Each structure stands twice: as C-alpha cells, then as structure tokens.
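Researcher: Next entry in the queue.
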Amino acid sequence: MDSFDYIIVGGGSAGCVLANRLTASGKHRVLLLEAGSSDWHPLVHIPLGWIKISYQAAFNWGHSIEPEESTNNRAMYWPRGKLLGGSSSINGMVHIRGHREDFNGWRDAGCPGWGWDSVKPYFERSERHSGDHSQRDALGISEVEHTEASDLFIKSCESLGLQRIGDFNSGEQEGVAYYQSTIRNGRRQSTAHCYLKPARKRGNLTVITGALCERISFEGQRATGVVVVRKGQSVQYRAEREVIVCGGAVNSPQLLQLSGVGPAQLLQKHAIETVVDLPGVGENLIDHIGVMAAYEVSGIRTVWDEMNPLALVVQLYRYLRHKAGLLNFPSSHVGAFFRSSAEQSRPDIQLFFMPVGGDRDEHNRSVMDKTSSVTAMIQHVRPTSRGSVRIKSACATDLPAIHANYFDTEYDRQAIVAGFKRIRDVFSQQPIAAHCGDEIRPGAHIQTDAEIFEHVRKAATTGYHPVGTCKMGSDAMAVVDPELRVHGIDGLRVVDASIMPEIITGNTNAATVMIAEKASDMILASVP
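Model: Structure for this entry, 528 residues:
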C-alpha cells in the first residue's frame, strides 16, 4: 500500500490549489486523485470552447436533478467537471468573489475566521491581474473585452438607474459593469493550468487520473486512506496525516455517505456501516437558477454576424495574433446586480448579458438563433430553497439522487419573476431600445406574473453553482467545523464549495478557490 502524508480526493477547483500549496515546501508527500482525465483537450484552453466542452460526456459527470413540479418535471442537466481542474476547466470563466455580507453572514452564523476581512487576503492571493507579471501561482484575471452591443446595454442599465461601477469584486456589487474573467493571454485560467501545472514539477507530488474513489478507509474514528478503482483494479492508498475530500457539492457528500459518514438511516438503507451519524451530509443543497430573454437587434454587430467564412477568418487572426475577439470571450460580457424589491438589504439578482441569441436543445447542445440577436439572463442569487444529494446505492459508479427543490419558497418565486421583468425594463431603455426588434424568447405574449413564472418553470436552468451539502458550522446539521474538519472524525477534511453554509451572491468558483487557499494555511498550521 503506497503511503502519503496527504491524500486529496478530487483534482478540481479546490484540489489543484491544495496540491500546489501543500507541496510548496517540499516537506510533505501528497497524492492527488482525479476520477476524470487530464485537461488535454484544446477546447478546454480556448475560452470560447466552453460552449462545447462543458457538455461533453468525456469531461462531465453527467448529473441530472430528479424531476420536480416546480421546474415542470424536467430532469435538468447539471454539468460538473470530470477532469483536472474540475468545473474550473469547463465553466463560463466569470470571476466573482461575492458580497462582503455573504462572508460576514458565515462568520456570524458560527464560523469564526470566515468574515470578509478574513477571507479577502485569500482572494487577493488567488488572483493575478492583467499587468501583474509576478510568477506566483494564481488565477489569471482580466476584464472582458468591450463590444458595441455591451456598451449600449450598460448605458441602458444606467438609464434605468443602475450605477456604473468599477468592478464587482470590492465587496460591494450593486450596479452594472463589465465582468472580470479567468482568461489571460487568450487562455482559460483553470486551477489545473494555474496551480497544478507548476506544482507537477515537484518530486513530492503524485497525480493519478482515471482513479474513482470508492470509499475512505477508517481505523476507529480516524481516516487512514482511500480505496480507488483504476483500470478495473482496486487500489488502496494510506494517508499518514489527512484525507482531504475535494469532490464538490455533489461528489463530496456522495463519497462521505459511501464511506459510512452521513445520515444513519440513509446508510442503513444501503447496508453501509455507520462510522459517524452526521445527518447534514448531503443536505442544505443550494444552487442558483436563472431564466433568459432574447431580442432581435439591428444596426449593431452580434456573434451571429461573425458566422460567415470571412468574418471567422478575421476572428481567428485576431485570436492568434492578438489574443482577442470572439474566441477570447467568456460566457457573459456585462453583468449587473440589483434588488428584486425595496425590502432587500442588498442585491439578490444577478444579470448576464451576451451579444448572441441562443439556447440549449433537448440534447443539451448549443443552438444559436439564426439572426442578429442578444440575450440577457437573470439568476436569483440568494435563494432560500434547500435541496439534497443522497446516494441511490452502495456503488460508487451509481450517480446520486439530486433534489434541487428550486422555487420551494414564495420569496424565491417572487424574486425570479421580478428579475425577469427587470430584463424587459432594460431593453425598453435607450440606447439599446433603438436597436431592438421582436422578443425572440419567451415572446411578448408572456405578460402577467403567472405567465412569467409558468415560463420560468418550463425554461429556467441551473446557474451551475451547487454548494452547501457539507456545510461548515457547529449546529446539528453542520458537517465540518471552521477548520473544515469533519465532525466526529480525525484526519478528514472537506475543502470545496460544499462547505459553504450559505450560497454567495454570484458565481461560486472564485470563492471555492479562496476556500482552498485558506484551507491550505489551516492544514499546514496544524502540522506539529
């Protein structure tokens, strides 16, 4: 049995960060296990490639939620990265830290050391902005390239009363701005590229791909290693110090449950011996959900206008020569944060604008509107509905049951409708209104609140931001403490988006990287 100081299960957004930081001193032997492949595919690294790569089965776990009435009984597809870099290798590359009060809320709910002032230095450590030529291992961050359509949209938001702000990552978010993205020099800045690639030169790091972790091994109440399947063979690895689970909000609770850590009743149902009865494992699932509106436009160039041979040649030249243009774009150009009602103390709606119209077909393939068009999408980013992730069997290859429970509360239903109405308000303002034609999706015939919510039920989709299923805290449903150690177990931590007690206001990847940065200091500080 091979032995290491630390075993990291999951080579995704958090796992790659930990692999880098825990091996930096050269003192610790670290094993990083990833069930998927390497990040070899060229479309992983070309920014616009996310449109294709994020739904490819070769790089995706293929999760779907259980059909629910609130989303018209759709088995909604939930892309989760299954390759080095995890979802940071397939996401839309929008970089959002969150609102300062998100983290102050964590602190005040029983997680000391996680307030804004405490986590901000770790955000800063994880970012390398344009113009910063230092060699430190961190995410490359840049502002999205400006376009005419996006400039017009920003001016229309200002006409509606939204303030133009510098960026969304100061701790305050209300207003409109171009997004920052994890793109640098024409390349996606995944954690596999920014953190793991430089660390793989170190002799004290071992990386194994294609290794599905079946369970964590225990001696009494201490985690001592893992059992994985690789190339059809069962292999055991021993951890002298800690096993660190970094599987994300779906896979981390699944692995804990398979290993006997979770709700005793669920474990007994599947004949799994209970190591510790933790009822919160797999509960408290939170995700953002959003809905789009698309409009025909004239007099401004959109992505559709680049879909001819000559324009594509120009775009390819711009990308190869200047690392600019269409191939260098993330999933959204312009964003806005605003309140769904005056009663909200801070923004609870996030808006995304793209100079292209399109949607997903029934096979989750990108389909572009064959006309000059633009799209705006809103997400309700402070939902109060809660779901769950629960194993269906004792077999690690069986995907768990995901109950998202979207729109389970009246507030969530009202907020999504209010956010959608705000999209229409923006498109009715000048200067964008002068260029707008018909509303392609959902169509002008959808008018009343009831009609809008019925459209939401049929068309809303995940924001790809599941969190919370191994939440941090000290209450009865908490899974890990503020040091991210699993309650009741020695030598076992969870480090990923699943530890968030509440979801943040915005995209979750930046906060996941921050969590791993902070966790690395905690882990190293615990070494005698």
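Model: Residues 484 and 493 are 5 Å apart (CA to CA).
Researcher: Noted, moving on.
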